[in-house]
Design goal:
Layout lengths: L1 E7 L2 E12 L2 E16 L16 H15 L3 E2 L4 E4 L4 E4 L4 E4 L2 E7 L2 E3 L1 H16 L5 H15 L5 H33 L1
Parallel strand pairs: 3-8
Antiparallel strand pairs: 1-2, 2-3, 4-5, 5-6, 6-7, 7-8, 8-9
Length: 190
């Protein structure tokens, strides 16, 4: 699935679309209306990815999104809601949605779209990267890069490496927990 833009009376709107095959031809089917498209530019070119204190994939995801929101001029209203006064757009971390005047909207950032669908996909990819088998990690890294590009998040090489190292650290901690739980279970059976 991907985001497609349709202009209605000169105003761009975003839709989640998937391709299906019918009688040997590709047909695009609209899955979901995402909202009006608002173009944004980051206030700073590079994100400060300090991932040392990340203890879970969820922490890593929220830290990455938080840094991007701050770079786009959003300010926290409370723990779960951020607001950009200039755009009059609110972001809710619980639903991962953007609203302008209580209507869904999508941020066009670089060549990507920051919307609930792409954010949920990024969260799922990060979680999968932490728990996947070692032989699947390379493909998981490529999927992570695609998810970031689809969002319009541009990371420099060193920033992407920091992100991968953060995921590797979480993988290591995850495997230690599994190892400890396995030992505990085997001792319990004895």
């Amino acid at each position: 699935m991907f985001v497609r833009i349709k202009k209605i009376k000169g105003i761009p709107y975003a839709y989640l679309v998937k391709n299906t095959w019918k009688k040997g031809k590709t047909i695009q089917k609209t899955v979901k209306y995402l909202g009006r498209v608002i173009g944004v530019k980051p206030l700073s070119e590079s994100l400060d990815l300090s991932l040392d204190s990340m203890s879970s994939p969820k922490d890593l995801f929220y830290s990455l999104v938080n840094k991007q929101l701050l770079a786009l001029g959003f300010k926290p209203k409370n723990k779960t809601v951020y607001f950009n006064k200039e755009l009059n757009v609110e972001f809710n971390f619980r639903s991962l949605s953007f609203k302008q005047q209580n209507k869904n909207c999508v941020l066009k950032l670089n060549d990507g779209f920051v919307c609930d669908h792409n954010l949920k996909r990024l969260r799922k990819v990060i979680e999968g990267s932490v728990s996947c088998r070692d032989e699947d990690f390379y493909d998981s890294g490529k999927e992570l890069a695609r998810a970031l590009v689809d969002l319009g998040f541009i990371l420099q090489k060193d920033q992407f490496q920091k992100l991968i190292f953060g995921i590797l650290k979480l993988r290591e901690e995850n495997s230690k927990k599994i190892s400890i739980n396995s030992e505990f279970e085997s001792n319990k059976k004895s």
